[in-house]
């Protein structure tokens, strides 16, 4: 016959084990992956910033891109957080595509200069 004290000890062990598993599972769901970032500048043939250009990205290797598209600012710049990997970035300004291949590393920013 088991004592009342050993049953209480077993119950506390089970409760503690379940608690550890729950915390580990929830932490895994909340932790964000380490992203890198692409900071780009698009310049028009005139040398001025290319504003309002559509920016798209094709994943060559790496994780899915969290956004589908971006647009250059009035300064001709864009900033895009992405998972580590290799990407083909395309800027479409006035129907003329400009391409650049970019390798992104976690927790680092890659600068991309694109010119018409």
From TrEMBL:
InterPro entries membership: Carb-bd-like_fold
Transmembrane spans: 12-31
Key words, A-Z: Carboxypeptidase, Hydrolase, Membrane, Protease, Transmembrane, Transmembrane helix
Domain of life of the organism encoding this protein: Bacteria
One term of GO molecular function: carbohydrate binding
Keyword Membrane: yes
Identification of the protein by name: Carboxypeptidase regulatory-like domain-containing protein
The organism of origin for this protein: Cryobacterium frigoriphilum
């Amino acid at each position: 016959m088991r004592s009342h004290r050993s049953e209480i000890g077993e119950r506390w062990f089970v409760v503690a084990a379940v608690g550890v598993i729950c915390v580990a599972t929830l932490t895994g769901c909340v932790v964000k992956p380490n992203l890198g970032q692409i900071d780009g500048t698009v310049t028009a043939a005139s040398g001025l910033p290319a504003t309002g250009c559509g920016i798209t990205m094709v994943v060559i290797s790496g994780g899915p891109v969290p956004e589908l598209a971006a647009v250059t600012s009035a300064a001709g710049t864009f900033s895009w957080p992405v998972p580590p990997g290799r990407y083909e970035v395309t800027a479409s300004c006035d129907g003329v595509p400009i391409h650049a291949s970019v390798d992104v590393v976690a927790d680092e920013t890659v600068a991309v200069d694109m010119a018409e």
